[in-house]
Amino acid sequence: MDISSLSQLSKVAQSRSIISLFSGDADRVENYSISTSGLYLDFSKQNITNEELNQLFELATTSKLADKIKAQFSGEMINNTENRAVLHTVLRSPNEIKRKILGANADEVIATEQHMHEIVDDISSGALLSASGEKFTDIIAIGIGGSYYGIKVALSALTPFHITGLNAHVIANVDGAAVEEKLTKLNAATTLVVVISKTFTTQETLLNALAVKNWMLKNSADASIIEKQWFAVSTNIVKATEFGLLKRNILPMWDWVGGRFSLWSAVALPLALVIGNENFKKLKQGAYEMDQHFQNAPFEQNMPVLMALLGIWNRNALQYSNLAILPYDHSLRALPGYLQQTDMESNGKSVSNSGEKLAWKTAPIVFGQEGTNAQHAFMQLMHQSDEIIPTDFIVCLKGTSDLPAHHQILVANCFAQSEALMRGKTITEVEDELAAAGVTSEEISRLAAHKTMKGNTPSNTLLLGEMSPENLGGLLALYEHKIFVQGVIWQLNSFDQWGVELGKQLGNIILSAMNGGDTSMLSASSQNLIKRFNLSLNKS
Ligand SMILES: O=P(O)(O)OC[C@H]1O[C@H](O)[C@H](O)[C@@H](O)[C@@H]1O
Question: What ipTM describes this predicted complex?
Answer without folding.
Answer: 0.96
